[in-house]
């Protein structure tokens, strides 16, 4: 399955259906895809994200992080989610082994020491203002787009790459119409088995 095409089909068939909802914002599928396109343009033409690059997300299951992931995948890049305290503590090791060209963080995040990324910016800046570029985008669902990390007891870093094709192929056909994000969005037992199937089905992801 091609999630990019599926989302475009949702926009055409049910543009006012709710893709994501939080206490701050309701995002229809029309807005959802529009913001993904805006984010893609900013990533490519303002932050110069290229195929094969790594973009890090430092936060805790933010509504905009879902759009960030899909935009990063459209760029042919990989999202490195740093959502847990253990990953924050080991961030210097992680970012030394997996250099990020860009790190986006939840707006309320305060760093004692800035992460070692080329560019560090607020997540809200991804879609806060319109990007006037319209870059050429070559979508490839088989390109690695998500990095799963495990830090072992001796601080050995284990990283596993996943493509959007792998994540959507594992989506259950009997997905529920809603799913609530309690904390982390990109955990292995949350994102592929729960979040992606809801998007495929045209349902709603609920955020705090």
UniProtKB/TrEMBL annotation:
Q: Which SUPFAM superfamilies match?
A: Acetyl-CoA synthetase-like
InterPro entries annotated for this entry? Answer: AMP-dep_synth/lig_dom, ANL_N_sf
Residues forming the AMP-dependent synthetase/ligase domain are 8-125
A Pfam family matched by this chain, by name? AMP-binding
| The protein's name in its UniProt record | AMP-dependent synthetase/ligase domain-containing protein
Q: What is the lineage of its organism?
A: Bacteria, Pseudomonadati, Pseudomonadota, Betaproteobacteria, Burkholderiales
């Amino acid at each position: 399955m091609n999630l990019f095409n599926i989302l475009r089909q949702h926009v055409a068939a049910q543009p006012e259906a709710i893709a994501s909802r939080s206490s701050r914002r309701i995002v229809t599928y029309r807005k959802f895809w529009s913001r993904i396109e805006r984010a893609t343009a900013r990533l490519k033409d303002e932050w110069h994200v290229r195929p094969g690059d790594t973009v890090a997300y430092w936060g805790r299951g933010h509504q905009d992080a879902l759009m960030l992931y899909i935009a990063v995948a459209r760029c042919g890049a990989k999202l490195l989610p740093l959502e847990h305290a253990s990953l924050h503590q080991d961030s210097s090791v992680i970012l030394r082994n997996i250099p990020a060209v860009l790190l986006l963080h939840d707006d309320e995040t305060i760093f004692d020491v800035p992460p070692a990324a080329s560019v560090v910016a607020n997540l809200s800046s991804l879609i806060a203002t319109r990007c006037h570029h319209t870059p050429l985008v070559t979508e490839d669902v088989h390109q690695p787009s998500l990095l799963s990390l495990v830090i072992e007891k001796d601080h050995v870093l284990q990283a596993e790459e996943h493509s959007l094709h792998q994540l959507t192929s594992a989506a259950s056909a009997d997905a529920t119409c809603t799913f609530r994000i309690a904390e982390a969005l990109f955990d292995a037992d949350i994102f592929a088995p729960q979040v992606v199937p809801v998007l495929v089905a045209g349902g709603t992801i609920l955020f705090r």
